[in-house]
Amino acid sequence: MTPRKPRDVGNGLLAASFTAKEVLAVVRPHPHLGMVELTGAREFAEGTDRGVEARVRDYRRHLADASSAALVLESDAEVELKADTAAPSPGLTWTARSEGPLTVRFRGRLQRPPYAEITEIAPPEFLAQDTVLEADGPVLTLRSAGLGAVATVRASSPSGAVAWVRTGEGAECRAEGAAAQLSLTVEFTVDGGVPAPRGRAHLVAPSPGSLAARTHAAAVQYALGCCALDVADGMTCVVTDHRLLPLSWTRDAYFVVLPLLLQGEPGSEEEDVLRRHLNWLFGPARADGPWMRSHLTGGQVKDPGLQADQQLYPVLELVDFRRRFGHWPSPDLGHWRAGIEAAFADLVADPATGLLVSEETPADDPAEYPHNFSTQVLYAEVLTRLSTVADEMGLDGAELAQRAQQVRKRTKELFLVDGPAGPAYAYETDGTGQYRLYADANDLPAPLAAAWGFCAADDPAWRSTMETAFNPDGPFTVAGRLGGLGSVHTAGVWALGLVQELLYARTIGDSSRQERVLATLGELVSEDGMLPETADPETGAWLSRDWFGWPGAALAAVLASEDLRPQPAR
Prior knowledge:
By secondary structure, the protein is α+β, with helices and mostly antiparallel strands. Helices cover 31% and strands 23% of the residues. It holds the Pfam family Glyco_hydro_125.
């Protein structure tokens, strides 16, 4: 059976995707450009592809195909390519074996990823390709003056010396013998320095056991190896994926690291990564003001849309860190207090309603009305969790708890409308009687409302809202054998929509619904435990985003915790 997606491996500095015979690409953070990559993919045609959804999606599919590979293995016998995760290294290493002579061919270049987005605000400036290729014995070197980057591919073989030979625009090297073996190590340097390697590489690999075990293993390995990328000493950026959109959304990042928050132990790599991520969030990512829709790995704003919930998730992650590990990321409590106060100061509240205002929805789409329901649920939860530890840094915990209660009360009043199945909470409202009824797979706080204590599990309006969202005959569910909640953002059944329904089923104790949703997710999950953005509701074929950290991590978190609130490590 053909795998749903390529395999992934990363060491927190470099991340890569590969198959049984190809290394598709190797990427690493860049302090000014976000990311640089070693790739054999065709160039993204800025003049004809940028902003055209069909062309963007076609390019994304190309990145998962063997035709995009930078390194290709060839042999008359079967080839086996494995990633080496045994020892810490600044590079990534693969070993290939064959029963006959083995050749590896290089075809590619260094480039900044095109960040091929569907809903884009600020396209990146075009950078011309200027890669220079040099072959010197076992080392193939690629240099780009424009990127300030150098990559090397070192080849070795236990059967004897090997050497790269230039072939037109590429290069190749060959290992001879009846049982040939080649090791390939890729390293990167960029202007601005290279952080010390964090540790061994993490391979996202098929694992035995239940769906919970498989998705947990994948979520943790993908987060630690490929999403949590070290950008400077003490700083780690968390991207939503390492190939298609290696950008940081604070919303996506929170859920990508949530499995680490739920199960990381004091002194672990998980704790260190979370600490470094918080340093980045409350440092470089806020250097120019509020957290925006998306950021480059250096902290620079990529897309400047202002979303209210994006100001809340970093505070939630900070409080969750304190809750899980028993201390703040650093002893400088003044720094964390200032960061919290700055985040709250950047929130826009309507003086007439007291509720948060946002330019965009949590799906990155323009808001039709200023107040979003799931954002108010999230706001109340952030205030509540912060209130339990606020006094440690000189904030008024009692005042925060009171404010959380006011947000809950006011939201229930202003969002309550007549829905298709009775009283319901609107998706958006202006607070004066205008509203929109809608449900979106990106809005996880909505199904978490009861688990988080925003409302009771038997709240008629919340139950009606959720039942309408997941009604297979309703307007928000994608119909089909594997159907579920979708989003106007991208066609198909959303893995996150199914995770929402699983959350709801667990909260109300609907075991048959839980079994059905888990069975559906079990059909959609890849061999290595990852989930796509969307899939075909009849066949299960992945429709968008072969790489996406959020849905698999969210499912792993749901299967590990009743309410997604990290408990103190034991």
